[in-house]
Amino acid sequence: MKKIFILILSVSFLISCELDREPFNSYTEDKILADKEASVDVLLNGCYAQLKGWSDIMHRIGEYPGDNIMIRGTSTDSFYSFISYQHIPNNDRLSVFWNNSYKIISQSSDLIKIIKEGESSQIDQKLGEAYYLRGMIYFYLSRAYGRPYYDSPESNLGVPVVNGMPDDIDNLQLPDRATVKATYEQAISDLKKGEALMTENRNAAYATKEAAQAMLSRIYLYMSGTYANPNQQYVDLSIEYSNKVISSGRYNLLSRSDFMKYNTYAPDDAAQKETIFAVKRVASEFSGFDHFYGIGGMYANIQGQGWGEMYASGEYLDLLRKAGKKNDARWAFIDPQYVTNSANNKTQAFRFIYDLKDNGGVQIGFNYLQQPLETNSDGSFFITISNVKYNLTVVDAAENKYSINYQGKTYVGEKDFMMLLNRVYPMYYITKASLQNNDSHLNSPIISRLGEIYMNLAEAYAKKGDYQNAKINLNLIRERSIIGGGYTALTATNASTLIDEERQLELAFEAHRGYDVYRNGQTMTRRYPGPHTPMVDYPATSLRVVQYIPQSEINAYPGTLTQNP
User: Fold this and answer.
1) What is the largest CA-CA distance in the chain?
2) Which helix (H) or strand (E) element contains residue 298?
3) CA dihedral 314, 315, 317, 319 (to 10 degrees)
4) Burial 444-478 (b: 16+ CB within 10 A, else e)
5) C-alpha distances in Å from residue 269, one per residue of 59, 205, 262, 266, 470
């Protein structure tokens, strides 16, 4: 009897495949070859289904180590290790990420082995999607478990390259981790093969030629070195693949007003043409559990659902404020929770961040302080803290910026309204991962969109020393969000700062920031309120910038699986 494929995959996979004719694990090689197109659909849909659980952990690994978010307090959930950098080898979420990733690799590999290309354009399209999914997963695995590419990719370890189960399962022995360089080469090879095979203009819920090109644009950017020491070969390739996506004509940046509703669109919604590929989720398979424990449920409580325990960081909010009060369209994804009375009225307040010190006067962090705003007889403002009056000094009245001298130091804060606090932290809800089709925390995690492609071009051109083209692409994104906010000059002196800030603003809460800092050899600083050890910085050279391989996977692995130091 021909080998039964994908036996290692879970039965829950079957549910999402919508297969009701035969059990999933009864798909033998004979049956697949007898009805190739239908069989490939079933097995490929299983790969897409597996992405749904995979993308939840992918988001947390990519976003939580960054500086866009803060959490109200420590947590016993294993995701807290991503925030705290207190990495642990037994992390159940990392086990799920590892297992889901290799399930997709295994299933896509078996499809590639059994189905020969060239029989029809329809079969080739599906083969191309399998290649795309496998290449994408290898890249995502390598950036989580392998060091940044600029740092000795020929010797640092990526992940095992295991393209399907060997024939001799009884004497199974799998290879140790490949190098970062070899892992990236596998991802690139798969994505290029997918690019060549895919010819159908499928919607953004499925892989396409342009999705492969978009991922190659990002991979080559990751390989392009630092601003100080760029690799021109990979810079040029990132530009080449970015331009392939743009020249396809299939995608357009949303208008400013539509972009401010971007989170409400499903990836295949006709109202938007910016998403290139996303992991589509629909309400019927998004449980009540997901609404609380999923990505959006941690960022906000909407329609009575969600814990709302993570908020926009002080650093991210300050970046938004640089454009002027609420002028940046990306404020649309931040929802401050204000105190209101029975008549739904708010109370004016002054809020600022101050240095938090221990009893010995050593700074240990930062904290928020807000008090109701009061008015002097001359019209100036003051607040009262512990029965002491503190006058405010105007910094920029039009932008509601005032300063206060508190505990011997001058701080600049904002005139706003009293906000609800969770513990001592103002609740700046994040909605970018919520409200698809106005369903509280329904969300289809974005893998690639056109906004990222233009940011890739801006960075790549800057690394090439072509600041004119870098500015053109940077301003396409900036002027979409900030009317009249485009930069007039981009130079070797300011390019890296302005591009990185814009990339942070644009791609926040899409699982980029935790990697963008390190791949450019920079240091993660999180000098804002929260329990995340804000006085500790993490340079790209730190061992903590990559995740441990789950010890459970090392123990179960049929062969040597080397742990990260």
Assistant:
1) 92
2) helix 295-299
3) 160
4) bbbbbbbbbbbbbbbbbbbbbeebebbbbbbbbbb
5) 22, 10, 11, 5, 31
pLDDT of 81 reads 96
Distance CA(527)–CA(414), nearest Å, equals 18
What letter represents residue 238's amino acid? Answer: S
What gap in Å lies between CA 473 and CA 467, rounded to an integer? Answer: 10
Q: Is 482 in contact with 502 (CB distance < 8 Å)?
A: no
Give the tokens for residue 429.
């809800």
Instruction: Give residue 502's pLDDT.
Output: 98
The two structure tokens encoding residue 386: 């512990």
Q: What 8-state DSSP symbol labels residue 437? A: G
* Nearest one of 183, 250, 239, 185 to 211, comparing CA atoms: 250
What is the three-class DSSP state of 80?
helix
Angle at 509 between CA 136 and CA 477, to 5 degrees: 90
Residues in CB range of 326: below 8 A, 6 or more apart: none
Q: Tell me how many degrees the CA angle 432-433-436 measures, rounded to the nearest 5.
A: 95
Q: Report the C-alpha gap between 520 and 230 in whole angstroms.
A: 9
Point out the residues of the chain with pLDDT beneath 50: 1-26
Tell me if 551 sits within 8 A of 90, measured CB to CB: yes
Rounded Cα gap, residues 75 and 549, in angstroms: 21
Read off the DSSP letter of residue 528: S
- DSSP annotation of 517 reads H
Crossing angle of helices 92-114 and 36-63, in 10° steps, is: 150
- Give, to the nearest 10 degrees, the angle between helix 467-481 and helix 450-464: 150
* CA dihedral of residues 138, 143, 145, 151 (deg, nearest 10): 120
Q: Whole-angstrom Cα distance, residue 426 to residue 311?
A: 8
Q: Say which residues have a Cβ less than 8 Å from residue 558's Cβ, sequence separation at least 6.
A: 172, 173, 174
**Single-letter code of the amino acid located at 36:** K
